[in-house]
Structures are given as C-alpha cells and as structure tokens.
C-alpha cells in the first residue's frame, strides 16, 4: 500500500502466471507452451525485420498481420483486431464491451485472468458453475436460466481452460444466438488442438467475438501476438480503445514474425498433429496409472488420481525436475493440469508418475 496509489490499485488481485523457472533441464509442463519451435520461416522473417527500418514506428494498423490473420480465419481484414498477446486483446474487450449494468457471466472454473480484468475495469460479474463433470452447459447461458435476467456480457474459452473440454460449434452458436443483447466472446486460445472455431459464424452474428493467440498452436508465446475476429462494429470499438491506450502495440519484428507464422500452414499442421498424438498417448498412460482424465481438445490434460493428493503429486514431480500446474481452488484442487510436451517428455512424465503412484 502507498498513499500515492490511485484508489483502485490497492483493491486489485493481479493474475499470477505459471512460474518461468530460471533453471534449465526442467521438463516444463506448467504453462501450456508448445514443445515444438516456431515456424523457421517466422524466425527468418524476424531476423530480416531487424534492419535500419527499426528506427521507424511500425504500421499502427498492422495491415500485413491483419491480412494474414484474416486469411487464416477465412474472414476479411476489417473483421480482425490485433493486439500485444490475446491477454491485451481481452483487456480491451473488457473495457470496450463489458462495462455494463448487467453482469458479465463466465464459468466458475475458467481462465483466471477474467476476474482480474473485472477488478481492473470495474465489471460486475457472476460465475456460472460448470456441471459436475466439468462441462459448460449451454442451457446455463440462456438469458432466462435460473430466473437471473439477461447478461451484460458472456465470455468462455473453447476449449475451456484448465479443463480442456470443448463445446460443439452448434452449442456455441446457441449461446450466441440466445444473447443478442450482449457481446459473447469465445476465447479460442487452444482451438487448434481439437475444437471447432466459431470464426466462420461472425458473419451471421454481430454480437460474436472470437479471440485467438499465436502463443500456443503457433509456438510464439515469447512474441506476444493475439487477435480478435468479429463484426466490423465490434472491431471498430476495439480500435477506439486501443488508439486511446497504445497506437503501436505490435512492433515491426512481431508483425513480420506473426504474419509469416500464420502463412506457414505446413509447420502449423505438422506440429499440432504431433501434440494431439502425444496427448492421446499421455491420456492412455495416465489412465493406466489410475488417473481420471477429462477429455481434452487442448494442448494439456486435466487429471486427478483417486488415491493420491494432487499437491503431493505436483511436489513429487518437482523433485524429479518436472513442473506441472496445480490450482488451490475449490472443486479442482485434486487435479493437475499437465501440458502436452514432446514424446520423450511424455515418457519421462509417465515414468515419474508411475514411481509416485505405485510407490
Ligand atoms: C494462454 C491463454 C491466453 C493468453 O494468451 P496470450 O496471447 O499469450 O496472451 C488467453 N486465454 C486463455 C484461455 C489462455 O489459456
């Protein structure tokens, strides 16, 4: 606390990112990074961008990147907004659309940045519990569900995090169509690992906004690029907020690298397929050891063991230099969220868990 702070600062509960340990030789399965490197073409484009032109400001509209994102999502560049990581895109979304008298609704178990932005931007919000088997039930998001009255906004990840469970596209559309009074945001950080994108629906629903990132399936978490896809009027709202905050969120190197990564479809297809194959082996291996594993459409799995405490397992893995994520939150404190790594990392993980579980 300091008497110099603006009043809101003392009330904030900031997001706590998964740790980024300085040690090398760790099997790092705690923050859902991609185990495969980015597209070599993206790396080359970034090297090429490092020349005398760095003395100039970048394109404030990031046209080249918006075109690449539009092409990859099958929409027009006017339907794309880009930002410095999808976290920044989401921040602008909360300010542009969710400061409403009616509450923002999102799942009780979901991306923990959402309540943080509510605190920062003064957004009233209301958790919607997942079902007992950790699914989003679209019926719970209908405006008259539970006699609560219409929402002022809705946001959920698809697939959800940290559960990994995905909704079908028709279920997503049902939520969007039932709530024309507010913006419905589908956070598709993990969509490329096995769910269907709602991007093709933006032409039909002016209240739908789809948010994606290059951090996970494009293996560029270090670059900080994300984007939103939606109706031109929503994109215009986001531009107004962005241009009142930072005119140049995407630097020259990031724009070149991100556009090249989006263009490299071959690398993208190969690496996401490898992640999905390892996920299947990891799931089967965990089940063999007695774990319950939620069906995952993401690059991580969410698993619990009926006979072993999750915090104890996480500590045991850490002693063996394997880091996974454990959340001390009600309902999920017996689960581990484990990022899908390479095949050798998967083998190391399963061997370590075998030793811990079978003592
Ligand atoms: C990783 C993640 C993000 C943020 O991604 P960045 O683009 O790296 O900021 C957003 N939403 C969810 C659900 C995520 O897991």
From TrEMBL:
<keyword id="KW-0808">Transferase</keyword>
<dbReference type="GO" id="GO:0030170">
    <property type="term" value="F:pyridoxal phosphate binding"/>
</dbReference>
<comment type="pathway">
    <text>Amino-acid biosynthesis; L-histidine biosynthesis; L-histidine from 5-phospho-alpha-D-ribose 1-diphosphate: step 7/9.</text>
</comment>
<comment type="similarity">
    <text>Belongs to the class-II pyridoxal-phosphate-dependent aminotransferase family. Histidinol-phosphate aminotransferase subfamily.</text>
</comment>
<protein>
    <recommendedName>
        <fullName>Histidinol-phosphate aminotransferase</fullName>
        <ecNumber>2.6.1.9</ecNumber>
    </recommendedName>
</protein>
<dbReference type="InterPro" id="IPR001917">
    <property type="entry name" value="Aminotrans_II_pyridoxalP_BS"/>
</dbReference>
<keyword id="KW-0368">Histidine biosynthesis</keyword>
<dbReference type="InterPro" id="IPR015424">
    <property type="entry name" value="PyrdxlP-dep_Trfase"/>
</dbReference>
<dbReference type="InterPro" id="IPR015422">
    <property type="entry name" value="PyrdxlP-dep_Trfase_small"/>
</dbReference>
<dbReference type="InterPro" id="IPR015421">
    <property type="entry name" value="PyrdxlP-dep_Trfase_major"/>
</dbReference>
<keyword id="KW-0663">Pyridoxal phosphate</keyword>
<feature type="domain" description="Aminotransferase class I/classII large">
    <location>
        <begin position="25"/>
        <end position="353"/>
    </location>
</feature>
<dbReference type="InterPro" id="IPR004839">
    <property type="entry name" value="Aminotransferase_I/II_large"/>
</dbReference>
<dbReference type="InterPro" id="IPR005861">
    <property type="entry name" value="HisP_aminotrans"/>
</dbReference>
<keyword id="KW-0032">Aminotransferase</keyword>
<dbReference type="GO" id="GO:0000105">
    <property type="term" value="P:L-histidine biosynthetic process"/>
</dbReference>
<comment type="subunit">
    <text>Homodimer.</text>
</comment>
<dbReference type="Pfam" id="PF00155">
    <property type="entry name" value="Aminotran_1_2"/>
</dbReference>
<dbReference type="GO" id="GO:0004400">
    <property type="term" value="F:histidinol-phosphate transaminase activity"/>
</dbReference>
<keyword id="KW-0028">Amino-acid biosynthesis</keyword>
<dbReference type="InterPro" id="IPR050106">
    <property type="entry name" value="HistidinolP_aminotransfase"/>
</dbReference>
<feature type="modified residue" description="N6-(pyridoxal phosphate)lysine">
    <location>
        <position position="216"/>
    </location>
</feature>
